[in-house]
Please model this.
Amino acid sequence: MAPKKQQKKTHKEKQPPILFDKTQAIISQVNKLLGGTVVTYFNNPRGSVCHDDVVALYELLQKIGRQKKIYLFLKSSGGNGQSSLRIVNLLRQYCDEVVALLPLECASAATMITLGADEIRMGPMAYLTSVDTSLTHSLSPIDRDNDRVSVSLDELNRVVKLWQAQGSDKSENPYQQLFQHVHPLVIGAVDRAESLSIMLCKELLAYHIKEEKTAEKIAATLNSKYPSHGYPILFEEAKRIGLKVNRLSPEINSLLLELTQLYSEMGQRATTDFDDTHAHGNEIINIWESTGVIVYYQQDKDWFYRTEERRWISLNDNSSWRRVAKVGRGTKVEKSILHIS
Model:
């Protein structure tokens, strides 16, 4: 059933703030302290590392040009690992050296990005995570809400190890019992995803680690050592793994935390309720920024509450990547939409 014609909007749609002048001022300070060029990447809690990020980053790099060294500020809870490889590959074409700056969380696919950096500088609250893969397959088991659940290779391996540790009948194959709950194609897909994750890690580390055994050891550790995907890998642990980590200076760390607060303000949900069944949502979820330019993805859509189904559906989706850039040496800025297919 199609939604009824929307009532005339009586409220102005709320918009998330674009704090370009404030963020640029902090980036300028960080550039001076580091003596180089900073590129920032921020995800709000609903954002993630994705393939479109590569095109957004390209817009920035075209603006700033080739640099000897790029300092990459990261704040993300993860996303697509293959996108991480593309991001690092693009960065490497525009600089000779990449230094990752981490004041807070840098998880999963974002951790993968740091593997491609020559150096990782971590603040007191910074952490990496494991990069083990879980996926939701079309044949995955169903939970109590009738939704497909995510399955990881580590979980499957632990079931098999538990079976063997309990001294079960050796004549029985544990996978025969497992197949009653998890489809064989799901197990195959998870195993393939795990192999892909290890391969991505090795490719990223190869940018600055020439010893193949060292890269293999780091990749294997990040993919299989930790019992939790979100286990926080802190400074000392990152060092033990074999990553080149150093402390982020207090001054730089403070500035990056201040920058994070501004990005968090930009990334807040801006919802306008017109009535009980109609609303409009605006939200900035991914942000890239460097000297003189910011590129961000903004979700921009109407919402209608379908009463008979008791759920919200989206209408009039105008979500897009948007760009704000300084023109010349003055204070004039130019706003545009990036059409990314």
The radius of gyration is 23 Å.
